[in-house]
Amino acid sequence: MNFLRPVLNNRPESSRPFAWVCFQLGLFFLASTPLISSFFFLVPLIQGTFLRRDYFLKDKWNYPLILAAILMVIGSYKAYSGWLAWVGLANWIPFFWCFWGFQPYLLTRGARKRSSLLLLAGTFPVLLTGFGQIWFGWQGPWQFLYGLIIWFIDFGGNPNGRLSGLFNYANIAGSWLAIIWPFALAFLINSSATFRNRIVSFAFTIATAIAVFLTDSRNAWAAIFIAIPFVLGPSSWFWLLPLLSAIFLLLLFSAFPVVPLELQLFARRIIPEDIWTRLNDFKYMNNRPIEATRIYQWKEAINLFLQRPWLGYGAAAFSVLYPLRQGIWHGHAHNLPLELLVAHGIPVAILVVGFVLLLLIISSKNCNFFGDLRNKSLATQNLFDRAWWTAAFILVFLHGADMPFFDSRINLAGWILLSGLRCMLIPTNSFKKLGLSSFDDGRLVP
Predict the structure, then answer these.
(1) Least CB-packed of 3, 67, 132, 446 within 10 Å?
(2) What's the CA gap between 265 and 283, in Å, rounded?
(3) What span, in angstroms and rounded, lies between the C-alpha atoms of 257 and 249?
(4) What phi and psi, each to the nearest 5 degrees, are found at residue 142?
(5) The pTM is what?
(6) Of 105 and 379, more confident
(7) pLDDT (tens digit per residue) in 35-84
(8) What is the DSSP letter of 9?
(9) Which of 180, 153, 184 is nearest to 169 (CA)?
């Protein structure tokens, strides 16, 4: 049984060996095949739930999600979107369950580190198919295992010229890569890594950065810069923040027309044209009606919410109402709080958004963001927890101007990240109260 030892490493005592193996396989296959990944995730999810079924109501972090789920169901009975409202609940309520059920597998630093590296390793097919379609003209669909796995790969990307890989849409691919980016950085700077791992991590980090650039996703570009100071930690801020601020000012000067002409021309000599034309949307300005812009969609979402503020119109209602009002189809409001307001009303929006923001704020204290700047040992020890927190923060940031959670892979990854943040808040003396066992010896701490 020695051959099983590597896959059982870092297993929290609160998880069973077979379930821990399945959880790892689910993480590894999540990006490339959500169907197979979901089958693997069912084992740890069911076992993690039933082993702790008597403790569900004792954890107060579950209360906002329980109340939000009840209100979502009530609102669906008389929803404007009809049956779509019931289908739309699948984007929320099953993932509330995942938040609880996956906690036994993310309890320790070592478990979260291993999980983040598995998500990173599972991203290789995304990079491979993305570079292949852009540089070598690959196109699909590609089928494996008699159709259980299908990758829809467009020649030249989707939209054309933008890397989308097996995600089949550039903004979704950019969102996934932006979430993975903090883990790539952490792997790169991990002081315990061997020389071989450093070469691999350097190549993977550079490849991820290039892929993000090729997605042409402004949100993903911003996420790259936002993640760096958080992952590197406060000991680097004295030189890193001025550098990033200078780059940000150059981008600002190059992209926005209100900047004095001399400054703009100077900045445009430094910033590549493909970047500043994308930032100010100059590439698509002549082909895009005003109804297709984010700001116009947000304005309409606010108007809809004000007319039905308490229980909303039901899931997917924006995709029904927006074409009727503006004559152009859009599937969502490109902002998660606004989407929740339109679909489910004020109480649900406050519960869900407040839950996520509060979890981010409180868990940040466990990542040594504002600790002793001279304590490099503590900063290194918390490296992968900082990367984990940063990935969750990036996902929240992305939902300010887009809705990647409609892709099941990103949605599931997001709730796994939130589940890990919850585990950061569980002190050792509270394990038994939550139906968990303590297990955090030297092997588990990076």
Answers:
(1) 3
(2) 18
(3) 14
(4) -105, 135
(5) 0.92
(6) 105
(7) 999 999 999 999 999 888 878 999 999 999 999 999 999 999 989 889 99
(8) T
(9) 153
